[in-house]
Amino acid sequence: MTTAPIIIHTDGAATGNPGPGGYGIVMQYGQHRKELSKGFRLTTNNRMELLAVVDALKELKRRDLDVLIYTDSQYVAHAVEKGWLLNWMKKGFRNKKNVDLWRDYIEVSKGLHLKFIWIKGHAGHIENERCDQLAVQASMSPKHIDLAYENGING
């Protein structure tokens, strides 16, 4: 029996880059919809784009799922879909940023059937626009600390 895929939309934002940042997530499965966001006092846009994906995948209760991830981050989408991440892993992530988050991604993606779809940001895609709103709102009142970034680890 084939089930419909879970659809995840993500976006990240950082003012100043680095600066206060946040992410927004919209998850959909059938008639179910969930929105998530989180703000950080000091981070980067790429970290927020990637953390949005990691945290969305952590929300999944089952691992044997087809998941479509829509992102306006070429950094995230291409790293997975074009095999960059596999090459980075083979080279021990030498001279790469956000290694902590990429390692988290590798762990939370195990068992999932993922497909990343890059979409142009700020182009009227309804769910991407909603994720952007959530990310920007979260960045305006950051309640979390991106410890790895602030401690100079993998930034």
Quick structural overview:
The chain is an alpha/beta fold and 155 residues long. The chain has 6 helices and 5 strands. It has a single domain, classed as Nucleotidyltransferase, domain 5.
Blueprint of the fold:
Layout: E1 6-14, E2 19-29, E3 32-43, H1 45-58, E4 66-71, H2 74-81, H3 84-90, H4 99-108, E5 113-118, H5 126-140, H6 147-150
Parallel strand pairs: 1-4, 4-5
Antiparallel strand pairs: 1-2, 2-3
Helix pairs in contact: 1-4
Explain the overall architecture.
The protein is α/β, with parallel strands linked by helices and 155 residues long. It has one domain: Ribonuclease H-like superfamily/Ribonuclease H (Nucleotidyltransferase, domain 5), CATH 3.30.420.10. The chain contains 6 helices and 5 strands, in the order βββαβαααβαα. A 5-stranded mixed β-sheet has the order 3-2-1-4-5. A hairpin with a 2-residue loop joins strand 2 and strand 3. It is globular, with a radius of gyration of 15 Å.
Features:
alpha/beta; 6 helices; 5-stranded mixed sheet; Nucleotidyltransferase, domain 5; 155 residues; 37% helix; 5 strands
Count every helix, treating DSSP H or I runs of 4 or more residues as helices.
6
Largest sheet, described in full? 5 strands, mixed
Helix % is: 25-40%
Q: From the 3D coordinates, which CATH architecture would you assign?
A: 2-Layer Sandwich
